[in-house]
Design a protein that fits this description.
- This protein is α+β, with helices and mostly antiparallel strands and about 130 residues long.
- It has two domains: about 30 residues; about 100 residues, no CATH class.
- It has three helices and five strands; from the N terminus they run αββββαβα.
- A five-stranded mixed β-sheet has the order 1-5-2-3-4.
- The N and C termini lie far apart (about 70 Å).
- The relative contact order is 0.22.
């Protein structure tokens, strides 16, 4: 009986370890994502997605939370007013409006991107 319980626990632990390593690999396998002007674009901006730890003092208590950011890694025939944007609905809407106005495509890659992911992002840009 004990052997059966031990085997069951061992299988659960091994399965859990596989899920954890799969979660770590998720960002590395993430494909570049394009938005903005999807066709007929004359410029392109590649953003690296990152997170920044922010602390706020609320009535004598400090609270920390992560804020998602988009950081310009490369711009091709395009310029933006800032190098870093907080991923809020307002900022994403403003970037979308800027993309339509200036015929710019945006491509997002993960924080820790591979050379292959950067090449895919440049291919998605479609700007020579």
């Amino acid at each position: 009986m004990r052997r059966g319980i031990f085997l069951g626990v061992a299988l659960i632990v091994v399965a859990g370890m596989g899920a954890v390593s799969f979660a770590k690999d998720k960002a590395a396998d993430q494909e570049p994502f394009a938005w903005g002007m999807q066709s007929g674009n004359t410029g392109c901006v590649i953003f690296r997605e990152s997170e920044e730890l922010t602390s706020v003092n609320e009535g004598g208590t400090y609270k920390s939370y992560n804020v998602k950011q988009l950081e310009v890694v490369e711009a091709m025939k395009a310029t933006l007013p800032q190098k870093k944007y907080t991923e809020t609905k307002e900022n994403l809407d403003a970037l979308q409006a800027l993309a339509m106005e200036n015929h710019v495509k945006y491509v997002k890659i993960p924080k820790k991107y591979s050379p292959e992911q950067m090449e895919k992002a440049k291919t998605l840009c479609g700007v020579q």
